[in-house]
Amino acid sequence: MIIRQIVYNGEYYVSEREILPVKKGELLVKPLSVYIGLLENSYIRYTYPSKYPIVPGSFGIVRILEEPYSNKGYSGKIAVVNPITSNGILGLDIDGILGSYATIREENIYKLVDENDPYLSLIPLIEHGIFLGKHSHGRTLIIGCNILAYIIAKFFDENKKHNYALLCYDNRRVLRRINGRVYVNLGELDPYYDSIVILDSMFGLIHKVLTHIYFNNIIISVFSFINFLPLKLSETYNVLYTMKTDRESPHMVEKIISSLKKDIKIIRVNDISKTIGLLPPRGLGAVISFHS
Asked: Which of 64, 71, 95, 287 has the most CB atoms around its CB within 10 Å?
């Protein structure tokens, strides 16, 4: 059996091997769909010190083939993959799932599902965005232009929240479909926001925002990769840095997936090498679906 994987080491290429070791605590899986977009862009923007060479692919749908070190009945099941592990982030710190076969840890299983719907790859991100949205109170400013910004904005729209805005430079065409205002200049911002949601690692921009406007709450996604905030010692803030998700809103998840289908397409391939032309991802990304 030849195992083919996409590898990034300054550029993307196809790697082939005959053996894929499965370590204790790991599962051998067959990737069915992989979302590329949010984390893969961190390679190009150098916003995260990834360990190269690395196999991308952090979010997806897999069929579990073998569980050699456990007996939990996973074999044959279809699972949604979440990238957060105790050893780092899948696709950034440890090899991801963009290949013909892959290994994941048991903790990467976000949930088991009954079908291979490629858009289910987005569930961990959507439920993370919903969690962030639920903890953003009052007038809210979202810093970022990625899929998480879109998800939070759609969550606000569905809940009839109108007092929010986004500050971003990319993907403005997509984000203009939301109800909130989209700003590109600091001078357009209001002088005060109750909550600021940080989804991007652009430290220079974040520094300017946090030192030029007034606010009470900061909500930071783990996927922003921000590890330093320029806060005034004379002020008091509520800071939430989180990787948590909200699993109690299945109807909201369905609505957001329906909205995302307009901008995130499923690209079906039968050869892993054809995914190289899709990297780095553009816009909000895409879902790659593998078929024989």
From this structure: 287
